[in-house]
Specification:
Layout lengths: L7 E4 L5 H8 L4 E4 L7 H4 L5 E4 L7 H5 L6 E4 L9 H6 L3 E4 L5 H17 L1 H9 L17 E4 L3 H10 L6 E4 L11 E2 L2 H7 L2 E4 L13 H4 L7 E4 L8 H9 L5 E4 L18 E3 L8 H19 L15
Parallel strand pairs: 1-2, 1-3, 3-4, 4-5, 6-7, 6-9, 7-8, 9-10, 10-11, 11-12
């Protein structure tokens, strides 16, 4: 039986089954080690391609053990779990699926806005425990100012979704000089001062680490809420806890944390915090799109076609 010399693509994290079947039908071998991460280093020794989500950390050391690797596909948006400079130095192309989870994360953000405005999370917990308390009044989302830190696809979709509520929207994004819609672009400190809700949609970069710190939290209204569906590193969690404890902030909804899972974090059980386990992109539709988009990119790369979601310009051919 002749040896199969087709390029090997390794799947390190679970992706949509339909996407896996699409890849298996392509001109490559497929090895799925998502059920046992311990198999990954050995699997990469002869791999041409690697597909990951957020669980697998693609470090420089891991890349050293993959001398034939030419392609990394991230089934999602953020690539902070991939050492992109190390990949570029080795001539490995990195792609992502930037639009796959837009609707999923935008819808979670809208859900957070409504839950926070009405104070529904603690009311749900109380009611389930047998307490029937109707005296605490929530607020309407209608007419409240929502400020976006980062104004890309997700923030724009949230702004469009809440427009019927009559919410003024503002945004801070140093890479977006004009919004092109009804959202007003402004400086970060100005946005923090006027917003009833501040929703984070920025990338996790060295410059953005603890972008929301004690000084910036102090600029927010004491009646305002913070929402983070982007990356945990954007928020100084100690400063956030202090602001919440002191009553300098009404509450927060956090889908992401600096350390995940955030075992032992006092924010988890704080009465003013609505925590979720980094599930912004965790919908059937979002994961199906993400898996299929990176698989299609892998098939394009195998066919020598241009890539649509290229994150890095390779340092060498």
């Amino acid at each position: 039986m002749p040896e199969d010399d087709r390029p090997l693509v390794v799947i390190a994290d679970p992706i949509d089954p339909g996407a896996v079947e699409r890849l298996r039908a392509g001109p490559c071998r497929v090895l799925d080690v998502s059920g046992d991460v311990g198999e990954l280093p050995a699997a990469l020794r002869d791999a041409w391609g690697l597909i990951v989500r957020s669980r697998t950390k693609v470090t420089a050391k891991l890349l050293e053990g993959a001398p034939s690797l030419k392609f990394i596909g991230r089934a999602g948006v953020g690539v902070d779990n991939i050492d992109v400079p190390a990949a570029s130095a080795r001539g490995v192309r990195v792609v992502n699926a930037p639009a796959a989870a837009t609707a999923s994360v935008a819808e979670l953000t809208v859900a957070f806005l409504l839950l926070l405005a009405r104070g529904l999370y603690p009311k749900i917990v109380e009611t389930k425990s047998g307490t029937w308390k109707r005296s605490d009044l929530g607020r309407e989302l209608s007419g409240k100012t929502v400020g976006f830190v980062g104004y890309g696809r997700i923030a724009r979709q949230v702004a469009a979704a809440i427009a019927p509520y009559g919410c003024p929207t503002a945004a801070y994004d140093p890479f977006v000089p004009r919004s092109g819609d009804a959202t007003e672009m402004m400086a970060l400190d100005e946005l923090l001062a006027i917003s009833d809700f501040v929703s984070l949609h920025a990338a996790a970069t060295a410059e953005n680490r603890h972008l929301i710190n004690d000084a910036r939290l102090a600029k927010m209204k004491p009646t305002a809420y913070l929402i983070n569906v982007a990356r945990g590193a954007l928020v100084d969690e100690a400063a956030l806890l202090s602001a919440l404890d002191a009553g300098r902030l009404a509450g927060a909804a956090l889908d992401v944390f600096e350390s995940e899972p955030p075992t032992g974090s006092p924010l988890l059980n704080h009465p003013r915090v609505l925590p979720t386990p980094h599930l912004g992109a965790s919908t059937h539709e979002g994961q199906s799109r993400a898996g299929m988009q990176v698989v299609e990119e892998a098939l394009r790369a195998l066919a020598g076609k241009p890539l649509e979601g290229l994150v890095n310009p390779p340092a060498r051919p």
